[in-house]
Amino acid sequence: MGDGPKRRLPLVGGGAPGAAPPPSATAAPEKRKLPVLQGGGDEGEDRPPWHWVALGTVATFIAWLPLAGLVNTLLRRMLEGAGDAEAPARVRVAMVALNVVAFALAGVAGGYLVGRFGGRAGRREAAASGAVVATLAWALALAEGAPAGALGWALLLVVMVAIGSAASYAGGSAGLRGRSGGAPPTR
What's the pLDDT tens digit per position in 128-150? Predict the structure, then answer.
């Protein structure tokens, strides 16, 4: 392009070209807030209750994985300390008991999340998330192929679902008591 004189575009609503803008145009524009940050904190109200079953399931798995890793690390050290090729009965009982405690604590944590932040979701959805986690964990154990027989696997499923749903139900109840404002759902 040429080296000719540069033109200034007139301001919208302004007077003559090149004239000073009106005083209202020099004031800072009003600040606008993001609509996401203006919410009252009731984000859970928008989700249907069944969404919280999936969220509780994920939360329970996230809590359970580090707990199970810690428990099994401790159990491995107990087995190394035993020195025998066959684990003593007290170590086998500790293996089962500590893993049940880890699973129950994770269920309480996931159920608490559902109860505390679940909007219309309540104890029922918390218990359902614990049952889903138990069923998925059972299916993973079944896929590994540990020998237990059909009756053993069926009994294990019933026990795991009972522990998972009871722990998550208890966590959901505690979460409902911890809600700030608003009455908890009646379920």
Answer: 999 999 999 999 888 887 777 78
Which phi and psi (to 5°) does residue 9 adopt?
-80, 140
The DSSP-derived string for 161-176 is HHHHHHHHHHHHHHHH
Phi/psi of residue 82, nearest 5 degrees: -70, -35
DSSP summary character for residue 118: -
Cα–Cα dist 101/175, whole Å: 20
Give the count of alpha carbons within 13 A of 100, CB side only: 13
CA Rg, the chain, in Å? 30
For residue 10, how far is the Cα from the chain centroid?
55
Q: CA–CA separation, 164 vs 155, rounded Å?
A: 14
CB 63 within 8 A of CB 105: yes
